Task: inverse folding
């Protein structure tokens, strides 16, 4: 860590803080982001080049940082050295909002977006806006082999019961229904959250499930049925080795026909990855529905662990020219022009108000499934925004507890008891 801080400090000394005035007299701002997704890297590069080519009074310089779990550490290191960029691809947003590290995003930017893709903090301000199309957790879905479905007369499930029957039908064919991952712990959410979302959705208008647990109005026991379903699916339909499988490996397993379906949190990004591995693979995607057929999806939050996206740093706001440049870039980022650049680069644009004007990238198999999800009449957006700044620590513990239960190391009752105890210790006591 000391070496990392020293390295970032050197970068800060050379590059300045949010940006600077280049030799051309233009205001240059830095845009720091997680560099783990190849498609995202390509899209950002294309958008930055298009923006800079406009010849305006500002330019943006991309600053790719570590990807995956290392990104949070990279941001903390950057904060420790006072080396904030003007624009940052944000994680753990609530913590940094509470610490005064982020600046409110003006309505000039938010007015360009669909209302469902961002949320307001408790102070009424917006601090994070989506970097891509995966508002909330609509990116947590099942990617599947469409040709296999067609060959065996299988259909995308309309209810949870149909999903179980689908798993059973694939297994009856002698094939493995589902590949999932837990090698990095966090991908375990990909199967869990769709199963738990019906419970979370019921608390949406009551302040959210996790806040209700903190207030004593709900408890981890309310998740028993969801945990039972998770255990049942893991025991009967998941490809062996899921405990050590990484998120990126599920695409390979799917394309190599080791499984008919695979969990994902990359959404359309996963479809892009599959196309690069095998351009002929006919992929599709769907979200596991609830018992009534609703597709319960967590709305993009601003304070909880799901609050990821683009933010303007408080440090960048202190410089009027840098702040104006940041707002100007984000305004461009959510324009139809930029959306077309993203689609042409192989990505999927964020959900802007003028989405009907975008020239969509239809070359990626399964992309239409994503667009159809956004228009599905059964799509139900819900809120579940934990107030506690300690929730992320609990979430990591909960993931591990679920994995141990799925793996047979603990019983369901033990998992519930230890998780409730950890919640009380970590969240309630702060």
Result:
């Amino acid at each position: 860590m000391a070496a990392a801080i020293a390295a970032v400090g050197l970068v800060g000394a050379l590059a300045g803080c949010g940006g600077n005035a280049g030799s051309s007299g233009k205001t240059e701002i830095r845009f720091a982001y997680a560099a783990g997704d190849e498609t995202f890297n390509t899209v950002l590069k294309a958008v930055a080049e298009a923006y800079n080519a406009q010849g305006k009074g500002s330019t943006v310089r991309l600053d790719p940082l570590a990807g995956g779990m290392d990104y949070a550490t990279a941001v903390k290191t950057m904060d420790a050295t006072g080396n904030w960029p003007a624009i940052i691809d944000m994680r753990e947003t609530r913590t940094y909002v509470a610490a005064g590290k982020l600046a409110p995003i003006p309505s000039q930017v938010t007015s360009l977006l669909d209302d469902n893709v961002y949320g307001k903090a408790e102070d009424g301000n917006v601090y994070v806006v989506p970097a891509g199309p995966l508002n909330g957790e609509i990116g947590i879905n099942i990617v599947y082999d469409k040709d296999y479905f067609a060959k065996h007369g299988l259909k995308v499930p309309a209810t949870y019961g149909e999903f179980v029957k689908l798993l059973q039908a694939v297994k009856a064919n002698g094939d493995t229904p589902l590949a999932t991952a837990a090698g990095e712990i966090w991908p375990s959410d990909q199967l869990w959250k769709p199963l738990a979302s019906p419970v979370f959705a019921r608390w949406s208008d009551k302040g959210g499930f996790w806040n209700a647990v903190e207030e004593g109005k709900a408890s981890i026991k309310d998740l028993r049925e969801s945990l039972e379903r998770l255990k049942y699916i893991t025991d009967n339909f998941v490809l062996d080795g899921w405990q050590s499988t990484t998120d990126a490996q599920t695409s390979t397993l799917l394309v190599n026909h080791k499984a008919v379906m695979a969990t994902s949190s990359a959404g359309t990004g996963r479809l892009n990855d599959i196309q690069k591995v095998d351009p002929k693979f006919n992929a599709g995607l769907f979200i596991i529905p609830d018992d009534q057929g609703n597709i319960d999806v967590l709305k993009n939050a601003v304070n909880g662990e799901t609050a990821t996206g683009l933010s303007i740093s408080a440090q960048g706001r202190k410089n009027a020219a840098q702040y104006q440049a940041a707002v100007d870039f984000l305004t461009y980022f959510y324009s139809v022009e930029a959306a077309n650049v993203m689609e042409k680069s192989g990505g999927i644009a964020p959900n802007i108000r003028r989405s009907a004007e975008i020239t969509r990238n239809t070359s990626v198999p399964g992309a239409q499934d994503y667009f159809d999800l956004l228009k599905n009449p059964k799509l139900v957006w819900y809120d579940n925004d934990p107030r506690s700044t300690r929730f992320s620590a609990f979430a990591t513990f909960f993931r591990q507890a679920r994995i141990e239960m799925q793996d047979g190391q603990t019983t369901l009752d033990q998992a519930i008891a230890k998780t409730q105890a950890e919640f009380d210790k970590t969240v309630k006591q702060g």
Notes: Confidence is low (pLDDT under 50) at residues 1-16. DSSP finds 18 helices and twelve strands in the chain. The first strand starts at residue 19 and ends at 21. The CA atoms of residues 401 and 415 lie 6 Å apart.
